[in-house]
Amino acid sequence: MKCENVIRNVIENECEDYYLGMVDLSQVDNALIEKYGSLITEYPRAISIGVTLPYLIPDKLSVNKKQPYDITNCQLKVITSHLSSLLEDYGYRALSMPKAREMIDGPPISFHEEVANLANLGKIEKNLLVTPEVGSRVNWGTILTNAHL
User: Fold this and answer.
1) DSSP 11
2) Cys-Cys with 136: which of 10, 81, 111, 128 at CB 3.0–4.6 Å?
3) CA 142, CA 120: separation in Å to the nearest integer?
4) For 103-109, which contacts have Cβ atoms below 8 Å and span 24 or more sequence positions?
């Protein structure tokens, strides 16, 4: 299986502007990742997918600030579910990580952003993952797997 090509085809059926990165989490020394130790043991590699948030004209943005996130959350759910199923069809284990609501006492950066950072898709600045191309206007999703990527 040409893994990256298959993954890109799935993503491109859902969106045009995206980020894709892969990382072996078992080789990473990171406090947030260590928090998920038992999960990482079972699923040592991650696929990070970022969907660029659509730009809205300022008038529409002030009316509905959540709309771009809702759109990209739906795209990410479809993409990660499809890819997880494909990986399982090839005999691997795969877990699509759900989006989590921010917790007041939780870490300032999400698991998805941390994985994207580890996959070299952007840099963490002021508790946000920032990409060189569009800054922080990206919504992230993650698939954990035991597939050799």
Assistant:
1) H
2) 128
3) 14
4) 107/32, 109/32
Work out the angle at residue 46's Cα, subtended by the Cα atoms of residues 53 and 104, and round it to the nearest 5 degrees: 60
Query: Cβ distance 143 to 96 under 8 Å?
Result: yes
Cα gap 56→37, rounded to integer Å = 39
pTM for this one?
0.86
Find tokens 């980020």 and name the residue: 19
Over residues 46-79, the pLDDT tens digits come to 999 999 988 754 455 545 666 777 888 899 999 9
> What's the 3-state SS for 105-123?
CCCCCCHHHHHHHHCCCCE
How many whole angstroms separate alpha carbon 64 and alpha carbon 45?
36
Are the C-beta atoms of 125 and 52 separated by less than 8 Å?
A: no
Residue with tokens 């085809």, as numbered in its chain:
9
Hey, how many other C-beta atoms are within 10 angstroms of the C-beta on 76? 25
